[in-house]
Design brief:
single chain, about 280 residues, alpha/beta, seven-stranded parallel β-sheet, two-stranded parallel sheet, globular
Length: about 280
């Protein structure tokens, strides 16, 4: 039995869909806040149980009988994510799970200025202290490119704060690789990176976009505080803007620069490149 949390969310849901192509549905379970939202999975034979990181008892029931559990990390900036993740890890251990997989982030090391790094580092330390086999999937940035790059098609400009090399990935490919790891015979221990094989910058994206469109797409570096002010003026809460700014600061400091081969190995093919993804975005 493989149990996936957050199965009605983007990454968790996509992982379950890929699992369904690899293992029988009765070997898959999900732990979700609202079981009604997982009816489409129950109708296909997936075991659906209610569970949330705030309710350890419900989690233990949701994890019962599982050999592996995928803990999809939370992202509520107002919550105590370390405590919630501890609840989930302890529930998995109490349920007798043999391996815990956790969706961490690339660059989850002390000193990374990107704010969520702190709770990923702390959660990985909790996992390391359980005595149970564990894997932290340090996923590369997988946001949609229209969000990552801003309205460049309309403006002809990629206007963002200073960045750094980043091996951007596609969320569905991360989900496919995660399913391959859960369903396969390969055991990966501890923290591992799931990234594209090549890191790119916004300068690279501007050159790629120029080549694809036949237009001159300019890369403009916006001052950090000017960018935050622009975000606030457009209605973005300051906490959200500051959180995203810390990502740019981490990128420019090189925390996301290292690319690794594991994603390609698990997929059995090369992941889609930045150029591939941008071309598909334009076609859509």
């Amino acid at each position: 039995m493989i149990v996936v949390t957050g199965a009605t969310g983007g990454l968790g849901g996509a992982t379950v869909e890929h699992l369904l192509t690899r293992v029988p549905a009765d070997r898959i379970g999900v732990s979700v806040r609202d079981t009604a939202r997982a009816r489409h999975l129950a109708d296909r034979g997936v075991r659906v149980r209610q569970g949330s990181y705030e309710d350890p008892a419900a989690l233990r029931d949701a994890f019962a009988g599982a050999e592996q559990v995928l803990l999809v990390s939370g992202n509520d900036p107002a919550a105590d994510m370390v405590a919630l993740h501890r609840n989930a890890v302890e529930a998995a251990v109490a349920a007798g799970v043999r391996r815990i997989l956790y969706t961490s982030q690339q660059g989850a090391v002390p000193g990374n200025p990107y704010t969520p790094s702190e709770f990923h580092v702390a959660t990985e330390a909790i996992l390391a202290g359980t005595g149970v086999a564990w894997t932290a999937l340090r996923n590369g940035a997988y946001g949609p490119l229209d969000q990552v790059l801003g309205p460049w098609q309309r403006t002809g400009v990629i206007a963002m704060p200073e960045d750094g090399p980043t091996p951007y990935v596609e969320r569905d490919e991360v989900a496919e690789a995660t399913a391959a790891l859960l369903a396969g015979d390969r055991a990966v221990e501890g923290p591992v990176d799931l990234t594209a094989p090549t890191a790119v910058t916004f300068d690279d994206f501007a050159r790629i976009a120029s080549d694809l469109t036949g237009r001159t797409i300019e890369r403009v570096v916006v001052d950090d505080e000017e960018w935050v002010a622009d975000q606030l003026a457009s209605g973005v809460p300051e906490q959200t803007a500051r959180l995203m700014l810390s990502w740019y600061q981490a990128a420019r400091a090189g925390h996301f620069a290292q690319a690794g081969p594991l994603l390609a190995e698990l997929l059995g093919r090369e992941p889609r490149t930045a150029a591939d993804r941008l071309a598909a975005h334009l076609a859509a």
